[in-house]
Design a protein that fits this description.
The complex is a heterodimer of chains A (160) and B (170).
Chain A (H helix, E strand, L loop, with lengths): L1 E3 L5 E3 L10 H11 L2 H13 L1 H17 L4 H15 L5 H19 L6 H16 L4 H24 L1
Antiparallel strand pairs in A: 1-2
Helix pairs in contact in A: 3-4, 3-6, 4-5, 5-6, 5-7, 6-7
Chain B lengths: L3 H4 L2 E5 L3 H13 L4 E5 L2 H10 L4 E5 L7 H10 L10 E5 L4 H10 L3 E4 L4 H13 L4 E4 L2 E4 L26
Parallel strand pairs in B: 1-2, 1-3, 3-4, 4-5
Antiparallel strand pairs in B: 6-7
Helix pairs in contact in B: 3-4
The chains are: A mainly alpha (160), B alpha/beta (170).
Chain lengths: 160, 170
């Protein structure tokens, strides 16, 4: 069923194009998605990927440190780290990366120059947190909190 | 439990990080999807789709030389696209508002912010299975209807009243 809503836009209802599966198969698929067996399998898959993900994070951290001065590269790498860190079990690393991502995103959005000191502090903290495998969370909690407060202040100043 | 609903599906994973591709493959395997192709960037994904159909696509956003946005636009709009209606879940660490809007306007079906969890990925897949979206075709856009929620008892003013004159509203 295709309907014309205005002189320009045509709406194509779900029953008018090929669907992923029949409604019967969809019901079965939803049972699979919500089953305890699937949950266990997925958990095993996630845990099996922690070591390689952690290795990938360390590779990104090396690249992040070598990107000093190239803010575009820092931007790319820190977003990658934010995306991967928690999956690798590096909670604080992800949190600090998230603060830097938000800082860079907001400064680009309001078209203000980045403060290299802020970026350098974060890069250093990310590197330390990622490499402190056994004490990741405790080590970084205070640092992350202080960096978040610093960034919030700088963003408030930049927005005035 | 048999994964009958998913066992016949073919998926395509478009992601430049091999570890993330491996994780996504393992998560799809866990719900019964076995036929999975992989590509490291958008152009490779387009090439892969020429050789093999996909019923479901998981795509990263930031990739080189072709990113996930351009890939999505190609799938939705190219005259030789094998399936312009294929569900595309965009998975990315770039979660700024304008990035989400870019993904929406490129025609992605679902958006998933990294870090991913099995629960979040499965909830996006469930959304596609349970609530398939209407598509919209106009001069400037082809893809899933970008208005996600329709409130049946909404009593306020319509912003685009003409949109509702001749269409089913769920």
């Amino acid at each position: 069923m295709t309907k014309k809503a205005s002189s320009e836009a045509h709406f194509i209802a779900p029953d008018a194009y090929p669907q992923l599966m029949s409604s019967r198969a969809a019901a079965q698929a939803m049972k699979v998605l919500r089953s305890a067996e699937t949950e266990v399998k997925a958990q095993v898959a996630m845990e099996a990927h922690v070591p390689p993900m952690r290795a990938a994070i360390l590779q990104y951290v090396d690249e992040l440190e070598h990107a000093a001065g190239d803010m575009l590269m820092v931007f790319e790498k820190v977003h990658e780290i934010r995306g991967f860190a928690e999956t690798a079990g590096l909670i604080t690393t992800g949190r600090i990366a998230d603060i830097l991502c938000r800082y860079m995103d907001d400064m680009y959005r309001i078209k203000k120059p980045l403060d290299t000191m802020i970026v350098t502090l974060h890069v250093s903290a990310i590197a330390r947190a990622a490499r402190a495998e056994d004490d990741d969370l405790k080590m970084g909690e205070v640092v992350a909190g202080e960096l978040a407060a610093l960034v919030a202040q700088r963003l408030a100043d930049a927005s005035r | 439990m048999s994964g009958a609903g998913f066992e016949t599906l073919k998926a395509l994973i478009v992601e430049d990080n091999a570890h993330m591709r491996s994780l996504l493959r393992a998560l799809l395997n866990s719900i019964g999807i076995k036929e999975i192709a992989e590509a490291a960037h958008g152009q490779a994904a387009i090439d892969a789709l020429r050789d093999r159909k996909a019923d479901l696509v998981l795509s990263d956003m930031a990739m080189k030389p072709m990113d996930g946005l351009e890939f999505t636009r190609h799938v939705r709009n190219h005259e030789h696209s094998p399936n312009p209606f294929v569900p595309i879940i965009m998975i990315t660490g770039h979660t700024e508002k304008h990035r989400v809007e870019q993904a929406r306007d490129a025609g992605v079906t679902e958006f998933l912010a990294k870090p991913i969890t099995a629960h979040n990925l499965f909830s996006r897949i469930a959304e596609i299975v349970e609530r398939p979206r209407a598509f919209v075709r106009c001069d400037s856009y082809f893809g899933p209807d970008r208005r996600r929620r329709v409130i049946d008892d909404y009593a306020g003013p319509w912003r685009r009243k003409e949109d509702f004159q001749d269409m089913d509203v769920r």
